[in-house]
Write a structure and sequence with these properties.
Aminopeptidase; 142 residues; globular; alpha+beta
C-alpha cells in the first residue's frame, strides 16, 4: 500500500436521500426519485456505507419482511473507488447481518447485474437459473 492510497472505513448506517441518489446514479444504477428514496430508505432492515475521508463512496442495503424474505439491494461503489475491494467490504458486512439475523428457512435474494454475480458467489449466493427466472416490473415516470 502506498502512502497516497485512500483509507476506507465502513459504517452501519442508512445513507441520506441525497447520498443514496448520488451513489446509485454515479455507480451506473438506475436513478430513484426523491419520493421513492424518502419512502424506501427508512424501511431498510440493514444498511452499510463505505467512507473515504468521511465521505460516502459506497453502500449496500438489505430490505424485506424481516422473517421469511430478504433482498440485497443497492450495492454501489463510485467508479473512482472501484477495483479496491469495497464491494467485498460491503458484502462482508451484509453477510454478517444475514448470518446473525435471518432465521432458518429465510430466503435471501438479489439481482446481479452483468458480471457482479461473481462477487455474490463468493458470499454463498448461487444462480437460480434454469429452475427460476428473475422478473421485474418497473414503474416509470409519466
Amino acid at each position: 500500500m502506498t502512502e497516497n492510497a485512500p483509507t476506507y472505513s465502513i459504517v452501519h448506517a442508512t445513507p441520506s436521500v441525497e447520498t443514496y441518489r448520488h451513489l446509485r446514479t454515479a455507480a451506473g444504477l438506475s436513478g430513484k426519485t426523491v419520493e421513492a428514496a424518502s419512502r424506501g430508505l427508512p424501511n431498510s432492515l440493514f444498511a452499510v456505507q463505505v467512507l473515504c475521508a468521511g465521505e460516502p463512496v459506497g453502500m449496500g442495503r438489505v430490505i424485506g419482511d424481516g422473517g421469511a424474505f430478504y433482498q440485497v439491494v443497492d450495492i454501489a461503489v463510485l467508479p473512482e473507488h472501484q477495483g479496491r475491494g469495497l464491494g467485498k467490504m460491503i458484502m462482508a458486512a451484509i453477510s454478517d447481518f444475514i448470518a446473525r439475523e435471518v432465521p432458518e428457512s429465510g430466503y435471501v435474494s438479489l439481482i446481479a447485474d452483468g458480471e457482479a454475480y461473481r462477487l455474490y458467489q463468493q458470499f454463498g449466493f448461487a444462480l437460480t437459473t434454469p429452475a427460476s427466472q428473475g422478473m421485474a416490473l418497473k414503474k416509470t415516470a409519466g
